[in-house]
Amino acid sequence: MRRISRLTRVAVGVASLALAATACGGTSGESGDDGGDDKGLAIAYDVGGKGDQSFNDAAYAGLEQAKKEFGYQTADIEPTDGETDADKEQRLTSLAKQGYNPVIGVGFAYGPAMKAVAAKYPDTTFGIVDSVVEGKNVASLVFAENEASYLAGVVAAKATKSKTVGFVGGVDVPLIHKFQAGYEQGVKDTDPKIKVVSQYLTQTAEEGGFSSPDKGKAAAEGQIEKKADVVYAAAGLSGQGVIEAAAKAKIWAIGVDSDQYQQEALAAYKDSILTSALKDIDGAVFALAKSVEDGKPLTGTHTFDLKSDGVGLSDSNPKFAEVPGATEAVEKAKAGIVDGSIKVATE
């Protein structure tokens, strides 16, 4: 099995997905100023912010790559507690006014705000991760999370000894349902006798489902009490609590979005992180920045899936190779998804 490499990610974003490019904008230097104030990519974080070792940090990695390669000024802005769509709209507006291009909202919660702001700044390219927003100057960067989660489910089924595994979702919304659906299907297709215990932390993001490690830890502890010995979290920053609980109980955790085994802030728990379901968020962010830098901004909806290496599964932890049959089962499942013989549910 092969992890998604940084070079592959760039290729995915720019070539393998055959993303359509339209010339409906440009860099800040091309849209009216003299180019002396060279501002490039700006990202506005989702709840949890930078430091979640997962979703937001993957977007930041894409920003850092763009900053290094293009040598321009970048910006990354944190969310605020209890913020409204109006707050998000103000944040995106401020970045566009300052001349940043592109401006990316990290997370589906930016949908309403982006639709409003993009219409007011037609010469700026906007991007949104995990949602589809219609607009001539908007690129919607979405992922087949269910496919990566299916692979995670296959691994969980191979690793469990108790025949019970867990799923912790941050917020009860359609996006996270995709993670759950793929994971449960992967488990059941591998061994229908295995029980999957699932729980959502909150009904809304405002309640802290993506930003509360304590909630994640409590949920994981409850699942461990029910004999779960592998727990998969799709919960942003809250997932750190799930990983902590798994490490304390000496069971397996499965990370999400980024390769959490490699995250320095999680080093104390890394031996318990068996694998992570990956989303090439950094590759998508960089691809959009590159398209603007090249003068051919991407727009429309672009789906990063398993076939294009836009999602995948990490095998950084050497213990992954020691799980009997896991590597072979994942490769077989991956081949089935790519050739269409395995249809992964989204709900």
Describe this structure in words.
- It is a lipid-anchor.
- Keywords: Cell membrane, Lipoprotein, Membrane, Signal.
- The chain has helices spanning 6-16, 55-70, 85-97, 111-120, 145-159, 174-190, 213-225, 239-249, 281-293, 326-339; strands at residues 39-44, 73-77, 103-106, 126-129, 138-143, 164-171, 195-202, 230-234, 252-257, 273-279, 300-304, 311-313.
- The protein is α/β, with parallel strands linked by helices.
- The protein folds into two domains: 6-144 and 280-304, Rossmann fold; 145-278 and 311-339, Response regulator (Rossmann fold, 3-Layer(aba) Sandwich), CATH 3.40.50.
- Residues 1-36 have low confidence and may be disordered.
Please describe the structure with a list of short key phrases separated by commas or semicolons.
lipoprotein, 347 residues, Rossmann fold, signal, 12 strands, disordered N terminus, alpha/beta, six-stranded mixed β-sheet
What is this entry, summarized?
The chain has 347 residues and is of the alpha/beta class. 38% of the residues lie in helices and 19% in strands. It has helices spanning 6-16, 55-70, 85-97, 111-120, 145-159, 174-190, 213-225, 239-249, 281-293, 326-339; strands at residues 39-44, 73-77, 103-106, 126-129, 138-143, 164-171, 195-202, 230-234, 252-257, 273-279, 300-304, 311-313.
Low-confidence stretches: 1-36
Q: Main beta sheet, described?
A: 6 strands, parallel
The backbone outline, from C-alpha atoms, is globular
Mean pLDDT equals 89
Subcellular location: Cell membrane
Domain ABC transporter substrate-binding protein PnrA-like: 46-318
Signal peptide: 1-20
Pfam families: Bmp (PF02608)
